[in-house]
Amino acid sequence: MTPSVQTPARIRIGSAPDSWGVWFPDDPGQVPWQRFLDEVAEAGYAWIELGPYGYLPTDPARLTDETRARGLSVSAGTVFTGLHHGEAVWDRTWAHVADIAALTRAMGAGHLVVIPSFWRDDKTGEVLEDRTLTPAQWRDLTTQTERLSREVRERFGLRVVVHPHADTHIDTEENVNRFLDATDPDLVSLCLDTGHYAYCGGDSVRLIETYGERIGYLHLKQVDPAVLAEVVADEVPFGPAVARGVMCEPPRGVPALEPVLDAARALDVDLFAIVEQDMYPCPPDRPLPIARRTREFLRSCGRPGAPL
């Protein structure tokens, strides 16, 4: 009997509208969606995320035609949620999630990235609520996230990956660990964004090594330490911090991505690793050269027989 040959785990590299300065479905300062698709393919990426719902065409047939024509496939959709508000926001949340999940499934993707709502406005800095959750809010956050994950899996066949994010309640190492320890590993996985985690003081390699079974997806991103020190000292909201250049082009910032990718490879599971260099607002001619250089840098992080 011939022994079976095990296929090595893969890290599949992609990019996202975020790396082209796209934060909103419709903004005259953003590049048109056709240009994003043209340039992300030209830069050498084969995988993309949907970005803000409505930026790319929401008709699956049209979006399939547009992506296939450029050799692109979709890895995930993204939703923002305020699940720490509990049952009161469920119906509104599900209506929002269901539309995006349906498009995500129709595009053949397997993941839904869930980002918690901000505790302060990412443009004005207005404090919207306390930055620290009460015990009751933590229970709502964890139980409602489990509910969302179960519903998304059962109805759409997608895996929810929760994205720790600056200026949200799932941000620091302490809060990420608390969230993971309080949720069912079978239902809730993590989208580890290396830039956001560093922004909030976390160590991505240690998180992967400690909670490896919970890492379901990666966003590759770096922060500029000098700019980060300024925005932390000045208590700058995330949006203006991005405008200052807190997220920077690899390999100029932290964390170093080679050790992160080595730790991810050691998990021996297939993972998407999506480049997201927050750049809003940005000149329309800026993203493509950065995307090309970043793709080449990530290729240099690969190993013989397992290129990135």
Automatic annotation (TrEMBL):
Pfam families: AP_endonuc_2 (PF01261)
Xylose isomerase-like TIM barrel domain span: 37-301
Coiled-coil parts of chain: none
PANTHER family noted in UniProt: HYDROXYPYRUVATE ISOMERASE (PTHR12110), INOSOSE DEHYDRATASE (PTHR12110:SF41)
Protein name: 2-keto-myo-inositol dehydratase
Source organism (scientific name): Streptomyces violaceoruber
